[in-house]
């Protein structure tokens, strides 16, 4: 079967009639429009919204790329960059991406993931499949292990030649092997990449005698790793993605044969920027700055009561990122926005709600920490892009000020780790420079 992948971007209209009918049926079957708002359906088009990923539909795959190109005019480099970003988000903190290069041209993100899983399983096969002692209860003609007295009386009253025994058997039918076999079976049904399908068929032969254990998927969460099974770790992590649908970052709709991976780009962008800031602070600013992600230490109200009875904190706010300067005793509020701004728009397409939200964050944090810190500055971080002439680059800076509030609009170039780190270091350096200014003012 020829590999057929159709590539679109977020918010690009899908009008091809054959693709439209197949995709609409899949969206309706899995409630992806109303419940998850992944798509908007009109009479003649389907528009993917705010996610990146792959949808396998029988003999074709629909691939959705970011609305903001991560790398300009180079799809292969862009997919490589997207994988690089995924390695820096919390869900993939195990870094179970194989370091070896993958042929990415004309291959969907899903097929890349399948290829990475295959490579991990190939390494397992090379090292040898895992055997474990498996507890068994069985009516046998040999006395081994421990006699199960209750069952022995129940089943063998008239069969003196039998023994109902409890014993451990050194078996290849471990939970780890059961999980990998289940994953291989599923991927064989959804892959349309000829090389992947060939490799899946090849590795499946090594697992054909494995018995799939009852409740394997339910028991997947109980697998732990030690020196005996550590070489299974990456493959099991991939299996969790393909089988479990457990991540808030990955939506996987399944009907037995289809696995759809959709990555909400707002969450990916937020998580990526937060983790990069944490790492940069650890490396360069650990003596001065503290980073907290999704900090919920502050409530909109200092106290709450019901009929004069004190209540626990409620209506806690949760900014994306909070950074404290330990020396200058300042707090900076940062939020990320996966959105393209426009220089020609009278408000640059900055949401008024976002501004009010940042204003409220600053006020709440300033009130909460007024005895130890000041909080007057907030930052909205957007992806930089040259997709349009009127778009913003990472060199652009926007600042809004009042007497006790400053909102900075910053842009980060996502085309490489180097450009992203450079732009984030520039933002963090402002927090240190402010400290230097304060010290000078105090001396004067």
UniProtKB/TrEMBL annotation:
It holds the Pfam family McrBC. GO terms for molecular function: endonuclease activity. The keyword Nuclease applies. InterPro entries: McrC (IPR019292). It comes from the Bacteria. Keywords: Endonuclease, Hydrolase, Nuclease. This is Restriction endonuclease HincII.
């Amino acid at each position: 079967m020829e590999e057929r992948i159709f590539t679109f971007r977020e918010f690009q209209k899908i009008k091809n009639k054959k693709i439209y009918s197949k995709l609409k049926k899949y969206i309706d079957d899995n409630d992806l429009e109303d419940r998850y708002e992944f798509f908007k359906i009109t009479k003649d088009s389907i528009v993917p919204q705010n996610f990146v990923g792959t949808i396998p539909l029988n003999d074709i795959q629909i691939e959705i790329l970011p609305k903001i190109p991560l790398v300009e005019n180079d799809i292969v480099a862009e997919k490589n960059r997207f994988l690089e970003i995924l390695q820096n988000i919390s869900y993939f903190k195990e870094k179970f991406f194989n370091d070896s290069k993958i042929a990415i041209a004309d291959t969907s993100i899903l097929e890349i993931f399948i290829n990475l899983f295959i490579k991990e399983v190939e390494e397992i096969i090379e090292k040898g499949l895992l055997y474990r002692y498996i507890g068994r209860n069985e009516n046998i003609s040999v006395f081994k292990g421990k006699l199960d007295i209750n069952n022995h009386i129940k089943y063998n009253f008239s069969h003196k030649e039998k023994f109902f025994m409890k014993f451990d058997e050194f078996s290849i039918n471990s939970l780890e092997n059961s999980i990998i076999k289940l994953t291989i079976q599923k991927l064989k049904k959804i892959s349309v990449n000829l090389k992947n399908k060939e490799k899946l068929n090849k590795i499946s032969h090594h697992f054909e005698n494995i018995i799939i254990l009852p409740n394997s998927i339910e028991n997947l969460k109980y697998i732990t790793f030690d020196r005996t099974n550590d070489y299974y770790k990456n493959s099991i992590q991939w299996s969790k993605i393909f089988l479990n649908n457990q991540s808030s970052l990955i939506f996987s709709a399944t009907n037995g044969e289809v696995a759809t991976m959709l990555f909400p780009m707002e969450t990916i962008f937020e998580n990526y920027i937060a983790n990069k800031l944490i790492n940069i602070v650890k490396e360069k600013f650990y003596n001065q700055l503290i980073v907290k992600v999704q900090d919920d230490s502050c409530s909109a109200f200092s106290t709450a009561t019901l009929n004069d009875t004190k209540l626990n904190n409620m209506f806690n706010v949760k900014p994306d990122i909070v950074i404290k300067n330990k020396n200058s005793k300042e707090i900076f509020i940062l939020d990320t926005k996966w959105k393209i701004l426009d220089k020609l728009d009278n408000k640059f397409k900055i949401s008024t709600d976002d501004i009010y939200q940042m204003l409220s964050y600053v006020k709440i944090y300033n009130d909460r920490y007024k005895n130890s810190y000041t909080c007057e500055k907030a930052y909205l971080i957007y992806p930089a892009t040259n997709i349009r002439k009127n778009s913003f680059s990472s060199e652009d800076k926007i600042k809004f000020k009042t007497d006790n509030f400053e909102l900075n609009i910053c842009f980060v170039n996502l085309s490489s780790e180097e450009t992203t780190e450079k732009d984030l270091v520039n933002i963090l350096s402002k927090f240190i420079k402010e400290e230097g200014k304060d010290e000078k003012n105090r001396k004067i």
